[in-house]
UniProtKB/TrEMBL annotation:
GO biological process: iron-sulfur cluster assembly
InterPro entries attached to this UniProt entry: BFD-like_2Fe2S-bd_dom, BFD-like_2Fe2S-bd_dom_sf, FSCA_dom_sf, N_fixation_NifU, NIF_FeS_clus_asmbl_NifU, NIF_FeS_clus_asmbl_NifU_C, NIF_FeS_clus_asmbl_NifU_N
Domain BFD-like [2Fe-2S]-binding per the UniProt entry, residue ranges: 140-190
Role of this protein: May be involved in the formation or repair of [Fe-S] clusters present in iron-sulfur proteins.
Residue numbers binding Fe cation: 35, 62, 106
Cofactor: binding details: Binds 1 [2Fe-2S] cluster per subunit. Binds 1 Fe cation per subunit.
Protein name: Nitrogen fixation protein NifU
Ranges where the NIF system FeS cluster assembly NifU N-terminal domain occurs: 4-123
Family: Belongs to the NifU family.
Residues annotated for [2Fe-2S] cluster binding in this entry: 142, 144, 177, 180
Sequence ranges assigned to domain NIF system FeS cluster assembly NifU C-terminal in this UniProt record: 216-280
Stored Pfam families: Fer2_BFD (PF04324), NifU (PF01106), NifU_N (PF01592)
Species of the source: Geomesophilobacter sediminis
Gene Ontology MF annotations: 2 iron, 2 sulfur cluster binding; iron ion binding
Length: 285
């Protein structure tokens, strides 16, 4: 049984903005009844066509789909279209106090519907999701849910996914027959490789001690700890002495037989994103 927050339950039992806007300025539809989830989003703009004054939805899906759709409509009201496009699926989940990872695809669906609605309003090619894979950009990867490599790589990159299981939770890809799991793993490796190349070109060639310390802390918080959290672990920064970074592992990582491998992973990530001379030391306490 999934552990839902009180806010998820509230938006499921008392969803906001359910219904249809007859004279909507923009409408976005994503999903498929065959997949088990479908969402239709309606947007109404003010007289100047600058800001969203109303948003409603119709959805077929689970409690998380209803709650995510309800949250999305509340979040976009009062925003310009450009501001609304900045709303991510993670922000939708955060608005609800978090979603079980197995239900994150519901927040992704809301983000997709918003993108489609705004693209159609602006008269540009709308992102196509769902089973209409002939109209989708890229190579079809998941035949069961009609998802391409372009779409999956976008979700992997934007949500920093590192396992095929996470990709399934966020998109459903691989959740039926499982035949596309090997290809999903390849896509993850491709995204990680692209990120490494991008970081390598952006990494400063010379750092002051203060800047190095700041980058180490930012990398630990934004890149490393989220990956440890996904496996129930964590770490704490103990000290930074020149190029030596001392960390203590917490939760599932504490006392783990593979903590040496985890320390090596942390070291490689810091060398990749901060400086090649960094050495990570695990300490107890």
């Amino acid at each position: 049984m999934w552990d839902y927050t009180d806010k998820v339950k509230e938006h499921f039992l008392n969803p906001r903005n359910v219904g249809e806007i007859v004279d909507a300025d923009a409408v976005g539809e994503v999903g498929s009844l065959a997949c088990g989830d479908a969402l239709k989003l309606f947007i109404k703009l003010d007289e100047k066509k600058e800001r969203i004054v109303d948003a409603k939805f119709q959805t077929f899906g689970c409690g998380s789909a209803i709650a995510s759709s309800s949250a999305l409509t509340e979040m976009v009201k009062g925003k310009t279209l450009d501001e609304a496009l900045q709303v991510t699926n993670q922000q939708i989940a955060d608005f609800l106090g978090g979603l079980p990872e197995e239900k994150m695809h519901c927040s992704v669906m809301g983000q997709e519907a918003l993108e489609v609605a705004i693209a159609k309003y602006r008269g540009v090619d709308a992102p196509v999701h769902g089973h209409d894979h002939e109209a989708m950009e890229g190579e079809l990867v998941c035949k069961c849910f009609g998802l391409t490599d372009v779409f999956l790589k976008k979700v992997i990159a934007s949500n920093k996914l590192h396992t095929a299981e996470q990709v399934t939770h966020f998109t459903k890809a691989g959740g039926a027959c499982g035949g596309c799991i090997p290809r999903i793993k390849e896509l993850i490796a491709e995204v990680m490789g692209e990120e490494k190349k991008a970081v390598a070109t952006q990494r400063p060639s010379k750092l002051t001690n203060l800047k190095k310390m700041q980058l180490i802390q930012e990398t630990l918080e934004n890149e490393i700890r989220p990956q440890l959290w996904a496996d129930g672990g964590d770490l704490e920064l103990i000290d930074i002495d020149g190029a030596t970074v001392q960390v203590a592992f917490r939760k599932a990582c504490a006392g783990c037989a593979s903590s040496g491998h985890t320390a090596k992973f942390v070291q490689e990530k810091l060398r990749e994103m901060v400086s090649e001379d960094i050495v990570v030391q695990e300490v107890q306490g």
